[in-house]
Amino acid sequence: MKKNLKLVLGLTAAVLAGILLFGGSGGSGSALRPTAGRTAAPDLRLPDLSGRTWKLSDRRGKVVLINFWATWCAPCRYETPSLVNLANEYRSKGLEVAGISLDDEDHDAVRDFARRYKVSYPVLLPGDSGVGSEIESLPTTLLLDRKGRLAKTYLGMLHEPEVRRDVERLLAER
């Protein structure tokens, strides 16, 4: 309980910082930010579950969906199959999905979750990097355009049709 309370308090501060850091664009139901109003995301560099470094800058030219989640988060568990569907369906069209687990150092639980839900995209571990410390609520998802700029922030559980529409619009941008 104490561990979860600490995480929730940290996440509250984290979402606010994340929105400030990435230049928040509104929650579900809002439109994509106009291209002129999008701000560049910082170059994230995080290890994945196998220890390899995942770098956001390596994804330039792709639309990137970054999902902040935790194994104990019920809405996160509910939306994961939609994220897997989106990753599988749009990967060949230029979408990259990544999940950043905000679980406290329980990498076995994260591995079990990824295996159970057949997660086909990179699962990243922020460790002591501070990434995710600004996330206020889980899940929180960031949608970046092909130039690495924040196009939309989704606070709370994703609605697959809305995200699908937004992804298709960003994939169509050149």
Q: Give me the CATH architecture, please.
A: 3-Layer(aba) Sandwich
Report how far apart the termini are. Answer: 47 Å
User: What are the low-pLDDT stretches, counting only 5+ consecutive residues below 50?
Assistant: 1-26
The amount of beta strand, in percent, is 15-25%
Order of helices and strands: HEEEHEHEEEH
| Radius of gyration of CA atoms, rounded to a whole number | 15 Å
Helix content: 25-40%
When the domains are counted, the total is: 1
Question: Numbering strands along the chain, what is their spatial order in the largest sheet?
Answer: 5-4-3-6-7
CATH superfamily: Glutaredoxin
* Helix-strand category: alpha/beta
Mean pLDDT: 85
Largest beta-sheet characterization: 5 strands, mixed
Write the layout of secondary structure elements.
Elements lengths: L1 H21 L22 E3 L5 E3 L7 E7 L4 H17 L4 E7 L5 H10 L6 E2 L15 E5 L5 E6 L4 H13 L2
Parallel strand pairs: 3-4, 4-5
Antiparallel strand pairs: 1-2, 3-6, 6-7
